[in-house]
Design goal:
Strand order of the largest sheet: 1-2
Distance between the termini: 44 Å
Organism: Yoonia rosea
GO molecular function: transmembrane transporter activity
GO cellular component, one term: plasma membrane
Helix content: 55-70%
CATH topology: ABC transporter involved in vitamin B12 uptake, BtuC
Number of helices: 15
Protein name: Amino acid/amide ABC transporter membrane protein 1, HAAT family
Keywords: Amino-acid transport, Cell membrane, Membrane, Transmembrane, Transmembrane helix, Transport
Shape: globular
Order of helices and strands: HHEEHHHHEHEHHHHHHHH
Low-confidence stretches: none
Length: about 350
């Protein structure tokens, strides 16, 4: 039972990332009809916003420390962050420690701006082109972004620590009546799951309960009729592209302490997230979220040593096997609209 609960937790962790990225992909496809293969790059850019913010907060200058000497007895020069000069050492250390959560505030406007630039500068010219053209151009854009990040940050992963308050693990075993240390789970992964739930809930609430969201949902169902009513639906869809970019970026920011950011992490998640979108149903927001968590949990169980011993390599293909089965039996996906991908 303890292993079962642990795998559920691992699956929710993976599923949170899949669901957030798939949610953004579905927002773009549902509003603009564009298959955006650059969406994984937006996830990666979000992670590097956290890296950049951490680097900026730790910028320092040399100061002579008379209390410390080298082996010759000369005073040492030490690096002192500029934040110490502005806020003092205690407050400066706290700000540096919370660099990743602080990055959320910076990432939102940056990712929205990047989303606007992508949509207005390139993707709008491919609205009426075949999906194959959209995939090629957005995949090419993803490679360009990836290489730019590699040029400036290098090819190696960059550790980006979580705040010290969330370092360590939570003992679920004691809470659930098991022996101590039976079910240990990292605090930050729990934070990531709850953060994902909040973001997903905020997106759904925005679409469900605001006038803007209601118009967007109407435009997703019948774009021409909304346009006839005199509403500039294209402008609203552009804003939704920016929101989708922000969702992917926030997913990347909070994932940085879990998996050290590297230039190809976007590609690693993109293919799996696109499979999640197809399984959930193209254009279905609830389907994308449900499929993300479901496939994350399945992948987690498939990664258990007992399962791998029985079926070697199953953890690498389980998501694709499930996708094949679902699409053969229900081409529109779990919650897709009737007729989508069924012709």
């Amino acid at each position: 039972m303890d292993q079962f609960i642990l795998q559920i937790l691992n699956g929710l962790d993976k599923g949170s990332a899949y669901a957030l990225i798939a949610l953004g992909l579905t927002l773009i496809f549902g509003t603009l009809g564009v298959v955006n293969f650059a969406h994984g790059a937006l996830f990666m850019l979000g992670a590097f916003v956290a890296v950049t913010m951490s680097n900026l907060l730790t910028l320092s200058h040399k100061v002579v420390d008379e209390t410390r000497t080298d082996f010759l007895g000369n005073p040492l020069q030490v690096d002192v962050p500029y934040l110490y000069d502005i806020f003092g050492q205690a407050a400066g250390d706290t700000i540096i420690d919370w660099a990743v959560p602080i990055s959320i505030l910076v990432a939102i406007p940056i990712m929205v701006a990047i989303g606007f630039a992508m949509e207005r500068g390139l993707i709008k010219y491919f609205y009426k082109r075949p999906h194959a053209d959209q995939i090629l151009v957005t995949f090419g854009l993803a490679i360009v972004i990836q290489e730019i990040v590699k040029y400036f940050y290098g090819a190696n992963p960059i550790p980006t620590p979580a705040p010290e308050a969330f370092v360590g693990s939570f003992d679920f075993g004691v809470v659930l009546g098991f022996d101590p240390n039976a079910i240990i789970y990292p605090y930050w992964r729990l934070v990531y799951f709850f953060f994902s739930v909040v973001v997903i809930g905020a997106v759904f609430a925005f679409l469900q309960f605001t006038t803007f969201g209601m118009v967007v949902r109407a435009g997703m169902a019948d774009r021409e009729t909304v346009g006839i009513l005199g509403i500039d639906i294209d402008k609203r869809f552009t804003i939704m592209f920016g929101i989708a970019a922000a969702v992917a970026g926030l997913a990347g920011v909070m994932y940085a302490p879990i998996n050290s950011p590297n230039y190809h992490m976007g590609m690693d998640f993109l293919v799996l997230s696109f499979v999640v979108v197809v399984v959930g149903g193209m254009g279905s927001l609830p389907g994308a979220v449900a499929a993300g968590f479901m496939l994350g949990i399945l992948e987690s169980f498939a990664s258990m040593s007992a399962v791998i011993d029985l079926l070697p390599g199953i953890n690498q293909i389980i998501i694709y096997l499930v996708a094949i089965i679902i699409l053969l039996t229900r081409p529109r996906g779990l919650m897709g609209r009737k007729g989508v991908m069924e012709e």
